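Budget justification aside, the reviewers requested a transparent look at the raw inputs and outputs of the sequence design task funded under Objective 1. We therefore reproduce one unedited record. The lines immediately below are the structure tokens for a 255-residue chain.
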């Protein structure tokens, strides 16, 4: 694998990520939640920041951009749909674009639903997916703009990537996600084991990022909206997966 990936905590519950090309030393931060946390992670690893790949315009993903750019002279890549809400942008990306970090390549997927400008970065050669606030370990983002159908379509698209894809999400909500998942899908043995793993990780100060798509497809209730068990738990037996997904998302908002 020609890349190194490092994840670390930022702010309250954000997860920062760095991906570095071993061949060239180029290194991208996925989002910039906080200047000091990102700079500290770079220093700890001895890496040089060349790029910031922004997933969406929310403040907890962009507030460190200007300071990091001033400090490292890095390039800032951001979704075109975010417009001027992301500061100091050099490259605006849309669906289908390919972004290089040194010799590494990422495909840009527009993944709306949490917000309209959200993109995810797929490093196919490294089997690494940076999907910020779309897909979380055992959960998914809130629908703040757009519709549940949009978020469901975005999730299905990500779920179609290879099972061994490492999923790097933008927040650590694993314990509350696990509590909800166990309510929604109480007979899922793989989920029970995963929830125990989440408890143990938390007790040791770790967080379960990255996850894999295989794990998420087996345990994440939002990716399992097409399963009869999930339809049953929201009282929508026989309904389509999109409707079950919307009901699960609504239930989680109230849970
Ligand atoms: Zn967000």
């Amino acid at each position: 694998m020609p890349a190194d990936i490092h994840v670390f905590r930022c702010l309250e519950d954000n997860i920062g990520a760095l991906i570095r090309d071993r061949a060239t030393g180029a290194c991208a931060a996925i989002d910039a939640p906080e200047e000091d946390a990102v700079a500290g992670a770079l220093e700890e690893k001895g890496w040089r920041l060349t790029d910031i790949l922004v997933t969406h315009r929310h403040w907890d993903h962009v507030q460190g951009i200007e300071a990091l750019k001033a400090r490292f002279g890095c390039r800032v890549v951001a979704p075109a749909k975010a417009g001027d809400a992301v500061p100091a942008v050099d490259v605006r990306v849309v669906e289908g674009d390919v972004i290089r970090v040194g010799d590494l390549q990422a495909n840009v997927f527009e993944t709306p639903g949490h917000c309209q400008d959200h993109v995810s970065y797929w490093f196919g050669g490294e089997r690494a997916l940076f999907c910020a606030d779309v897909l979380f370990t055992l959960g998914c983002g809130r629908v703040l703009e757009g519709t549940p159908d949009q978020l469901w379509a975005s999730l299905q698209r990500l779920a179609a990537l290879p099972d061994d894809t490492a999923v790097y999400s933008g927040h650590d909500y694993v314990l509350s996600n696990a509590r909800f998942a166990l309510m929604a899908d109480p007979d899922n043995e793989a989920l029970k084991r995963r929830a125990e793993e989440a408890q143990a990780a938390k007790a040791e100060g770790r967080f379960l990022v990255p996850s894999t798509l295989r794990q998420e497809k087996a345990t994440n209730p939002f990716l399992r909206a097409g399963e009869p068990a999930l339809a049953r738990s929201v009282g929508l037996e026989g309904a389509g997966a999109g409707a079950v997904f919307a009901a699960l998302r609504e239930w989680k908002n109230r849970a």
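The chain has a mean pLDDT of 97. The CA atoms of residues 50 and 234 lie 46 Å apart. Computational costs for records of this kind are itemized in the attached budget.
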